[in-house]
Amino acid sequence: MLTLKVITEHTEEVIRKLARKHFDAKEYIEQVIELDKTRRTTQQELDANLAALNQLSKTIGQLMKEGKKEEAEAARAQVAEMKENSKKLDETKASAEQQIHDILVQIPNLPHDSVPEGKLAEDNICEKEGGSIPELGESALPHWELAKKYDLIDFELGVKITGAGFPVYKGFGSRLQRALINFFLDNAREAGYLEIQPPYVVNATSGYGTGNLPDKEGQMYHATADDLYLIPTAEIPVTNIYRDVILNESDLPVMNTAYSACFRREAGSYGKDVRGLNRLHQFDKVEIVRIDKPEHSYQSLQEMVDYVQTLLEKLELPWRILRLCGGDMSFTSALTFDFEVYSAAQKRWLEVSSVSNFESYQANRLKCRYRDENKKTQLCHTLNGSALALPRIVAALLENHQTPEGIRIPAALIPYTGFDMIK
Fold it and tell me: How far is CA 412 from the centre of its chain?
């Protein structure tokens, strides 16, 4: 959530930057500024009223001592009137504050200056790429056919048990899933991330803290009886560990990693792009989260990007890094890099990770702060990234590493799978 200070002191810049996200902020900002004027004016009246009340209360005591009962009663009546006025002023101020809050949560984060212009995924900029795209030949199979051939994943059984988008992993498919989870967690731990095992459901306050609520796209599963939400990413519970927390500067950066199942309604998704593992309602993911001070957060972002790159290199997959344009960024992000791997059988790129810096946007909602060397509290910057999401990684591994003898397992993963080939 943007701060009032940023909006009131840099109004034109805020409107201009949000236009890069294709968000027309002018009306929102004007409403916030007008309501803030009401809030400040009302606060001044309240302060003046309180000072007058205190003075009048002292006067009543003095009048009573002097035996001036009629004057004291008149003063008491005036005090009652002033208290009633203060109550109305309090209500006006609270209403203005609530309206400001309701508007602020509808305004996206400001994009970083390095975010390119653009509206669609085609406008994203490729920053870097690596790995070799394999030549598979005409007999190559897409991962959903490989999954059936080697009895790895049963999509139809998932439909029977739950519905589309909830596959059942079996045998070598299950073992590959578990191996990847452990591989990602071990790599994260070796890179300095503290492992967390979070809850898979969160309350509304946690969803609000990371900007997932209000849920404009309706992508979160909501357990209405208990007003709890199934998490679409471990980012939500892990980042909320630091809600209403004041960290010491020496504790930063905080580095956490977590595995979780993730649940997304993926409303409106259909067609060939959702076939097989390309888009699921339930999937596994290992997340990395950092809490940092503002002047170091973009170094942290680069370190996270470099780290995700090493994972894809170890898995021997062709990859590329995209700097997202303003129109393709999330509501909460200031700068995002997407990682994609090439699916050799589908002959297209698949997104497997987003690494983002939210600057102070989430921290302001979370009230996540740190105390600097001068004992002054400041808002932290929060960052997170997928490291990695499993479905499309599995799809790319099956497709890119298929051979006439079976599916080859990358060398770095063999200690985790316990086998080097799926036959």
Answer: 30
For position 54, what pLDDT does the model report?
82
**Contact 380/252 with Cβ under 8 angstroms?**
yes
Strands (E), 8-47: none
Across 235-262, b (16+ Cβ under 10 Å) vs e yields: bbbbbbbbbebebeeeebbbbbbbbbeb
pLDDT confidence of 272, banded at 50, 70, 90?
low
Question: In terms of Cα–Cα distance, which of 61, 283, 256, 58 is closest to 165?
Answer: 283
Q: Residue 51, SS3?
A: helix
Parallel/antiparallel/unpaired status of strands 194-196 and 254-263: parallel
Q: Please indicate, yes or no, whether the overall pTM of this predicted structure exceeds 0.90.
A: yes
How many whole angstroms separate alpha carbon 144 and alpha carbon 156?
A: 11
Residues 6+ apart with CB under 8 A from 180: 284, 388, 390, 393, 394, 413, 416
pLDDT 10s digits, 276-314: 999 999 999 999 999 999 999 999 999 999 999 999 999
Distances (CA, A) of 334 to 29, 59, 139, 343, 358: 19, 56, 43, 29, 5
Residue 113, pLDDT > 90, answer yes
